[in-house]
Automatic annotation (TrEMBL):
PANTHER family: CHEMOTAXIS PROTEIN METHYLTRANSFERASE. GO terms for molecular function: protein-glutamate O-methyltransferase activity. This is Chemotaxis protein methyltransferase. Signal peptide: none annotated. S-adenosyl-L-methionine binds at N78, T80, R84, E119, D144, N202, L203, R220, N221. It catalyses: L-glutamyl-[protein] + S-adenosyl-L-methionine = [protein]-L-glutamate 5-O-methyl ester + S-adenosyl-L-homocysteine. Pfam families: CheR, CheR_N. It comes from Marinospirillum alkaliphilum DSM 21637. Methylation of the membrane-bound methyl-accepting chemotaxis proteins (MCP) to form gamma-glutamyl methyl ester residues in MCP. GO terms for biological process: methylation. Its EC number is 2.1.1.80. The lineage of its organism: Bacteria, Pseudomonadati, Pseudomonadota, Gammaproteobacteria, Oceanospirillales. SMART domains: MeTrc (SM00138).
Amino acid sequence: MTAKEREFDFTDRDFERIRDLAHERAGIFLSPKKRDMVYSRIARRLRALGLMTFEQYLHHLEDNDDEAQDFVNALTTNLTSFFRESHHFDLLAEQMLAIAAKRRDPIKIWSSACSTGEEAYSLAMTAIETFGSWTPPVRILATDVDTNVLQQAKRGVYASDRVSKLDEQRVKNFFVKGKGSHAGMVKIRSQVQDLIHFNSLNLLAPNWPVKGPFDAIFCRNVMIYFDKPTQYKVLSRFHPMLREDGLLYAGHSESFQHAADLFRLRGKTVFAPTSKAERSKG
Ligand SMILES: C[S@@+](CC[C@H](N)C(=O)[O-])C[C@H]1O[C@@H](n2cnc3c(N)ncnc32)[C@H](O)[C@@H]1O
């Protein structure tokens, strides 16, 4: 997009300021290639607020705590789907059965960037299928920094095409088809929702209102938006929150070689926490 085609002036300084704030507040690293994307997403905020320039918007952002959340919401990328990277759910099923053979207390799973909820609901469906019960011994925490997507996640209502690639039996078992004014929509069954607790959480916040230890942490397709030092910080906080035999499930293009002291590759984009013994061997 050329400067002429733009409705609002957007200077290098505006872009730099927005990049700094996105990094500071949500860890999101915006490369110069993202300039047009940043323009179009923040321009929507200017229109919503009736502002005329990016400079005015940046002042407004400084003075209004409420805008901080809308700013972050505007810059997140929320692409997701049910049973995305399905091999993870096969491994999780095996992991859950192995845990259940060893102990009785609930298996705890954290979907740490859950977006509109498809990942968390896929975890819950896997648990129900694995244990053949609507009340499996599994508790799921699902969090995201973006409060808009979290609202959608909690509702659990999706356009039918979001489930069109799912196995037909799964759709029958786990979703209710909308009728009348809800035609073309599906809603996840309440028994699936009951296994999940949704909450907002910024992976960069100094405190996480989260109680471990977890058997599995899903942190998929979010680290790609963070730079390596930010990734390392988050990984070093995940490490003590995982049980020794717990697993960290990452996204298809995420590798944590720079954090080999914390996690070792255990399978396709699945990582195990390094033990104290491994760490001391160096
Ligand atoms: C591309 S989606 C991935 C969704 C899902 N995990 C998956 O793999 O399908 C990335 C999600 O990360 C969230 N996110 C970005 N920065 C975050 C942060 N600092 N803390 C928590 N979530 C964050 C975004 O809001 C977005 O919903």
